[in-house]
Design goal:
Elements (H helix, E strand, L loop, with lengths): L2 H14 L2 H9 L9 H22 L5 H23 L6 H21 L6 H25 L9 H29 L1 H28 L5
């Protein structure tokens, strides 16, 4: 089995993991708060994108343009997740304002680098902003002692998933286009190892988060 085949099957395994939090979230749908609805919608989009991605990859076609659109949807839905949480405590207008600003960033990225390249610029900006949101969540929650038992709240696990995924993949996102021009195979290997690890971790934490929505 050659390296390309191994990378392909690792990609399938990584993509399949997103089914777990979706199934758990769907099972506990009646208990899912409105704050978590954006994350559940993101899982649906993620599953659709992963299926399309596998088909396109199998056909040997470029799938980079898919991630340009997915990144915009991902940023929008995660921003809405944080907006829904913070609006109960203070105005979240800045989070909402950054959504159209990010649309402009993604558009510039697609115009400058093209849709057939890795959207490293918009993905990097997305990661930095979402890392800030997640750290702000922890700071605000710990400072104000909002939850009596932090580990029992779904929001803690969802926020942890976001922090780990985007901080873990930030360097990969930043240098992906550069590495693609230098050595595409090494980029594919690094992507398979690094991104797969944090993607699995991300979905495990999401699964715990949706599992915690059960009525005690």
């Amino acid at each position: 089995m050659d390296i390309q085949t191994v990378i392909f099957y690792i990609g399938i395994a990584s993509a399949s993991v997103c089914l777990i939090p979706f199934i758990i979230g769907l099972t506990n749908l009646n208990n899912v708060s409105k704050q978590l609805i954006p994350m559940l919608c993101l899982l649906v989009i993620n599953i659709i994108v992963e299926i399309i991605n596998i088909i396109i990859s199998k056909l040997g076609l470029s799938n980079h343009y898919i991630f340009h659109y997915f990144t915009v949807a991902e940023f929008t839905l995660i921003s809405l997740f944080y907006s829904c949480f913070f609006k109960d405590y203070f105005s979240s207008w800045l989070i909402k304002l950054l959504i159209p600003v990010f649309f402009i960033v993604a558009y510039i990225d697609s115009m400058v680098n093209g849709l057939n390249t890795v959207n490293n610029f918009s993905a990097s900006v997305e990661s930095i902003i979402l890392i800030f949101y997640s750290l702000l969540f922890f700071y605000f929650v710990l400072k104000n002692l909002i939850f009596e038992n932090l580990l029992s709240t779904p929001l803690f696990w969802i926020n942890t998933a976001i922090l780990f995924y985007f901080s873990g993949n930030l360097i990969l996102f930043v240098f992906s286009n550069y590495m693609a021009t230098i050595d595409p195979l090494k980029l594919a290997i690094l992507w398979s190892v690094i991104h797969t690890f944090f993607n699995v971790l991300y979905n495990v934490f999401l699964s715990i988060g949706f599992w915690k929505t059960r009525v005690k």
